[in-house]
Design a protein that fits this description.
single chain; alpha+beta; Heat Shock Protein 90; 5-stranded antiparallel beta sheet; globular
Length: about 150
């Protein structure tokens, strides 16, 4: 059975932790491993942080939206903002690329999300925002014995 969760919150850095915990709590229905849960939380953190810092330029008046759907052992997470958008998605996905070097940003957000999820998709339009969607299989994984 499909289960859906929707969240929205102000683009405040302190809400990143709330988003991590909320999505992780929602995912526990799938009985994930601790490693899978940590990876999911990290991907959520990266997407939310990008929305806050890059999408809204740390303007707390912006709203970050999260939709998480659980279906058939997989969680599908969408993090959306209505911020400034990404000029060049492929460039933004390059390791070490950042638009905020003065903030000592590492430029690894999308790389981390790609590594910790099974699927990552990014859509963006200038001045209308960005949608980051990722999927991660959490249930029904086969354990290989050697």
């Amino acid at each position: 059975m499909q289960n859906v969760m929707n969240l929205s919150f102000n683009a405040l850095g302190e809400n990143e932790g709330f988003a991590r915990v909320a999505v992780a709590a929602f995912a526990t229905k799938l009985n994930p491993t601790m490693d899978d849960l940590a990876e999911l939380k990290t991907a959520v953190s990266e997407a939310v942080t990008n929305a806050i810092i890059h999408g809204y330029d740390s303007n707390p008046g912006g709203i970050v939206y999260i939709t998480a759907t659980i279906d058939d052992g997989e969680i599908d997470v969408i993090v959306r903002d209505e911020g400034r958008g990404i000029h060049n998605i492929e460039e933004a996905k390059e390791p070490l690329f950042t638009t905020k070097p003065e903030m000592e940003r590492a430029g690894m957000g999308f790389t981390i999300m790609e590594h910790f999820t099974d699927m990552l998709d990014v859509e963006s339009s200038m001045s209308t925002g960005t949608i980051v969607r990722f999927k991660k299989r959490l249930a029904g994984k086969r354990v290989r014995c050697v």
